[in-house]
Amino acid sequence: MPLFYADVRRLARHERRRVSAGDTLQTTALIHEAYLKLLRSPTFNDRAHFLRAAALAMRHVLVNYARERVAAKRGGGALVESLSEAHEFAVEEDASLIGIHEALDRLAALDQRLAQIVECRFFAGYSEQDTALALGITDRTVRRDWIKARAWLRRELAPRNA
Fold first, then answer.
1. Do the domain assignments include residue 11?
2. Cα–Cα distances in angstroms (integers) from residue 76 to residues 54, 80, 145, in the given order
3. pLDDT digit string, tens, across residues 66-115
4. Domains in the chain: how many in total?
5. What region does 75 belong to: left with phi over 0, alpha with psi -120 to 50, or beta?
């Protein structure tokens, strides 16, 4: 963790702002919470293994934080968010982040790699290159799978007409 602290801090700051964690969840708190989750796996095989684990840890911290805020508000309307680009949109509602998390769990049941790409790109804010390194695949595969994953999530998160 100390070797990658600056990178993780930069990613955490970006993700905290993007998901509208606001002033109540500081970047340092997000990093420390993720670090506590990473302590459960004290050894990492390589940088890619660490990046995958950090992405998953940040996902869990952000989703748990959103769940706590929704519970504190006694619910709230879920907004469907566009998944056009991971770095270009912010999640305005905690319930929306939880909806994306739950949809991602369903996607993982269908295609684990697509779900891992969403974790890296959306929850950790990794670039295509960082995602490729973390998952041991090519940049081109990341781009192709990111398009598939976004399309699946858009359909899954679209409001259902009764």
1. yes
2. 29, 13, 32
3. 777 776 665 444 444 444 444 444 455 666 778 888 899 999 999 999 99
4. 1
5. left
